[in-house]
Design brief:
Blueprint: H1 3-24, H2 28-49, H3 52-76, H4 90-112, H5 127-137, H6 139-164
Length: 165
């Protein structure tokens, strides 16, 4: 087992554990922390795959923006009075645990018995190749989408300003 497989297993366990804890924990603040760990682990998996750009976007968008959005939502609402009631059907929790455990065993069996080539092929989704494609071949489409998004932002500001007056 090489170092890449060890890190893959570590990141996969952290992502799965964070996801399960996000569902199982009772306090919303603990759920947000477990969600952050899960997002970081997924970003680590992207880095292992050689997709640095997607990993950075994962960190900036999900770990940064979405988590801050949840924290602000938690701060703005009265979440102390809201509790999660226990599930009335306890057998569903056990059945879902058995199903998830079975899926995990099947996935681990498939992962450890994969026949991967020994020579790594270069991944085309690096930052350099995305930049060359975006600013080379698709530059006109990139500029068009930038103008369209700017016009939409200006329109949203104008509409919001008219409603405020």
């Amino acid at each position: 087992m090489n170092g890449q497989m060890i890190f893959f297993t570590l990141f996969a366990v952290i992502a799965i554990s964070g996801s399960v804890l996000m569902i199982a924990l009772q306090k919303i603040s603990h759920r947000i922390v477990s969600m952050v760990f899960s997002f970081f682990a997924v970003a680590g998996l992207y880095f292992l795959l050689g997709a640095e750009f997607i990993g950075i976007v994962q960190i900036m968008v999900y770990v940064g923006a979405i988590t801050i959005l949840f924290v602000f939502g938690m701060m703005m609402t009265e979440h102390r009075n809201i509790g999660f009631e226990p599930d009335p059907h306890k057998w569903q929790r056990g059945l879902s645990f058995v199903g998830v455990l079975t899926l995990l065993i099947i996935m681990l069996y498939g992962i450890f018995n994969m026949d991967l080539p020994n020579t790594p092929q270069p991944y085309i989704g690096t930052v350099e190749s995305i930049g060359i494609e975006l600013y080379g071949h698709y530059f006109i489409a990139f500029l068009g989408s930038a103008f369209l998004l700017t016009a939409a932002l200006i329109g949203a500001v104008v509409i919001a300003r008219k409603e405020a007056e």
